[in-house]
Amino acid sequence: MSTLVLVLLTGIGLGALYFLVASGLSLIYGLMHVLNFAHGAFLTFGAFIGWEVARRLDSTSWWAFAVSILVGGLVGAGVAALTELALIRPLYERHIEQVLVTVGLAFAAVALYEGIWGSDPIYISAPAWMKETTSVLGASVPNTYWVLMLAATALLISLVVFLRYTRFGTIIRAGVENRAMVTALGIDVRTAFLLVFAIGGSAAGVGGVLAAHYTGYVSAHLGSTLLIFAFIVTVIGGLGSLPGAAIASVLVAVLQQFANYYMGGTGDIIVVVALAGVLLVRPSGLLGRRFA
């Protein structure tokens, strides 16, 4: 029983990490129709800068951990905003060019990170309480997973409240539906779209810092690895659907954990098979709009 609970809860915690990464992808595509393959670069940069800040303060203290998360989010937002201004804004509704530019940026970013921090993983220190465990029904669950769950829940609630109950959220949703009409009303939709990109980048930056604590290291390829599962989650949940991404994140991670434990480490294969099954049965994803 304790083993089952442990696998289930660690799967939910891993799903929370997937959602932190996938939420930005889903938000940016759902509101701006941009497939951002450089999203992993935002995550990696946030992880590196968060680690640099934490180690200069006191990487084993809780306040240094909190500051690193804040800095990671701000760095991710800043880099994402610059990317939107310099590279994405001239290419709206030009999807092939968007893909090529963001893929190129992702490769260039990895090379840059390797040039600055090297190609080998850098193992990090964490606050002592994150290395401890909490007992649930006989299962000792590492506290890192609880932090991931809390962060993902707070992010989902914040995004839903922002989009539904704030002025900027209303402008963004209206701009997606009819950009010309909103512009005719004297509202600068470009500012709202820039904010969307910044929010997505901020989620990636926070996810990068937490991913580093989950894996125990930072490396130039951290974001690239997680981006694969983020895209799988986004597609299964339905492109552009935040609730879909949240549900798919948990389903994919739990399935992956159970397959890894009970089926000889076949979690990645099972996830790919699940993706293929969803695409065959429901190409729009779990909560995505059906194709006409």
TrEMBL record:
Gene Ontology annotations for the cellular component aspect, listed alphabetically: plasma membrane
Annotated localization: Cell membrane
Statement: the UniProt record of this protein carries the keyword Ubl conjugation: no
Domain of life: Bacteria
Major location category of this protein: membrane
Gene Ontology annotations of biological process type: amino acid transport
Any one Gene Ontology molecular-function term assigned to this protein's record: transmembrane transporter activity
Topology of the protein relative to the lipid bilayer: Multi-pass membrane protein
Keyword Hydrolase carried by entry: no
The entry's keywords: Amino-acid transport, Cell membrane, Membrane, Transmembrane, Transmembrane helix, Transport
Residue spans crossing the bilayer: 6-27, 34-51, 63-87, 99-124, 144-163, 191-214, 226-254, 261-281
Family named by the database record: Belongs to the binding-protein-dependent transport system permease family. LivHM subfamily.
Entry-linked PANTHER family: ABC TRANSPORTER ATP-BINDING PROTEIN, BRANCHED-CHAIN AMINO ACID TRANSPORT SYSTEM PERMEASE PROTEIN LIVH
Protein name: Branched-chain amino acid ABC transporter permease
Source organism: Demequina lignilytica
UniProt lineage: Bacteria, Bacillati, Actinomycetota, Actinomycetes, Micrococcales
